[in-house]
Every structure is written in structure tokens, then in C-alpha cells.
User: Fold this.
Amino acid sequence: MKYVKKAVPVEAFQWDGGTTPNPKWMDEFADKGKISFTRRGDVLKASIFTISGVAQMNLGDYLVNAGGDDIYPIKKDIFERTYEEVKDGVQKEEKKAVKAKKVKNG
Assistant:
């Protein structure tokens, strides 16, 4: 059997170490102690306290807010293969499906 991952909208932010302002929800998680930042020399890292344990986030990784207390980092390449940005509340794949349905139904 094959399965397709259900489309679940999430908020995400690509962490660049502070060049871009963090979204409010990320700062709120840091204020709650769910994110801690460390610097060793020139290397800035973050520890993310997820529902599954502690995960490390490096510059360029995405931080995903799946709702509630569920946050987790994802490596850039994996995030970009797994997620696509939602614009105007509709994903690209949904638009393709609507167009195909319109063509089929005339």
C-alpha cells in the first residue's frame, strides 16, 4: 500500500541567526524556555525542546510551529522537499486539482 502525507498547514521560519526578525511565536517559545541559543566562537546554534526531546537547530534550518506546544527544527533540504508555501490560503497542488476538475467537467 502507498500513503500520502496529509496536508496540515503549519507556520515555519527559516532561522538565520537574527538577521531577519524572529516571528512573534518563536520569541514566545523562547520566553517559555522551549528554545535556548548558544554561541561557540562564530557558530550560533539553538536547542529546541520538542515534545519528543531536545533537537538542535543550525543556521538555515527551518523551525516549524505545528500548533500548541509542538515545535521542531527541520533541515533546509528536507523542509523544501516536504513543504510548499501557502499563498492566498491555497497550495499549488490544490490549484492544479481545481483546474483539472474544471477542464474535466467542462
